[in-house]
Design brief:
Layout (H helix, E strand, L loop, with lengths): L3 E5 L6 H6 L7 E5 L2 E5 L5 H7 L9 E3 L5 H4 L2 H8 L9 E5 H4 L11 H4 L4 E5 L4 E4 L2 E7 L8 E6 L6 E3 L18 E5 L14 H11 L3 E5 L3 H6 L1 H12 L3 E3 L5 E4 L2 E5 L11 E4 L2
Parallel strand pairs: 3-4, 4-5, 5-6, 10-11, 11-12, 12-13
Antiparallel strand pairs: 1-2, 1-14, 2-3, 7-8, 8-9, 9-10, 14-15, 15-16
Helix pairs in contact: 7-9
This protein binds zinc ion (2 copies).
């Protein structure tokens, strides 16, 4: 059976976590036999790829959810890696209007020069979909301070569906877009009781999970307040309220999705941080 592997090169988000690198902000690499995708290459994407032995020249698609620095800053150098130092036109760059052309509040953040290098540049809007080998990728709706922000749903018959919310606040129907996914990655920037317009708190995450009913949740993209409050405590809250197993992402963590979902962490085992296996329903 085909396996999909997610490697969390970064799990931090927001301005203060980015400028202090309290958690890395390098995005997520998604790998399978036929797939090599980098999702949201924030600051550190290139360096942490190299440090973890993940050759950035093997990337075949770069997905950027919106034009905030913790999601896009390394996009251009990864385009250069993907196109072998700009010598080959290849790969896909998929990003919303703000990233490619700019909108009233932000962007563009990938230069015209770099947009000419990939074989394919896809402008994303809610509902736009495209295929990379046997995986269908659909842009989902997000409501954030960059109004063009999108999330992603990846569909595949072998290992089921996974999704990434990107930065979004809760709105009616956000979770429905992720109905039936096995693994739901949520950018839970803020802890319970600390709302901030355009961003997700633990309370919002609970509502999204209730709508979506995923097999498992991964919390990531932690802001400073979330780090101080303690993401493990917040994960417990989500589990207690929804009954859905909730994993807190850590830098360097790998999740393989196949017959079962398996989580492996880079740091030494600590209490509550053991390897985790979730069998397919
Ligand atoms: Zn962000
Ligand atoms: Zn953002």
């Amino acid at each position: 059976m085909t396996q999909l592997e997610l490697i969390f090169l970064g799990t931090g988000g927001g301005r203060f976590v980015t400028i202090t690198q309290k958690r890395r902000t390098a995005g997520i690499r998604i790998l399978s036999e036929k797939l090599n995708i980098h999702l949201d290459p924030g600051p550190g994407a290139l360096v942490h790829s190299l440090n973890m032995g993940l050759n950035p020249q093997k990337i075949r698609a770069i997905l950027v959810s919106h034009s905030h620095p913790d999601h896009y800053t390394d996009a251009e150098v990864l385009v250069e890696a993907m196109t072998q130092g700009t010598t080959k036109r290849r790969g896909i760059l998929a990003a919303p209007h703000s990233v490619l052309f700019g909108n009233e509040t932000c962007g563009p953040v990938v230069s015209k020069y770099h947009q000419q290098m990939p074989e394919n540049v896809i402008e994303l809007k809610t509902g736009v979909n495209f295929n990379i080998s046997d995986i269908k990728i659909t842009a989902t709706e997000a409501r954030h301070t960059d109004p063009d922000t999108v999330g992603f749903r990846l569909e595949n018959r072998d290992f089921g569906d996974i999704a990434y919310s990107s930065d979004t606040e809760f709105f009616e129907g956000v979770g429905k877009q992720y109905k039936g996914v096995r693994l739901l990655l949520l950018c839970v920037m803020r802890p319970s009781g600390k709302p901030w317009k355009g961003h997700m708190t633990t309370d919002d995450a609970i509502k999204i999970v209730e709508e979506a009913g995923p097999e498992m949740i991964v919390m990531t993209h932690f802001g400073m307040q979330m780090i101080f409050s303690g993401p493990y405590r917040e994960a417990k809250l989500i589990e207690q309220r929804t009954g859905v197993p909730t994993t807190v992402a850590s830098d360097g963590m790998r999740i393989s999705v196949g017959e079962e979902i398996r989580v492996r962490r880079m740091e030494r085992k600590q209490k509550g941080l053991d390897d985790f296996v979730k069998s397919r329903k």
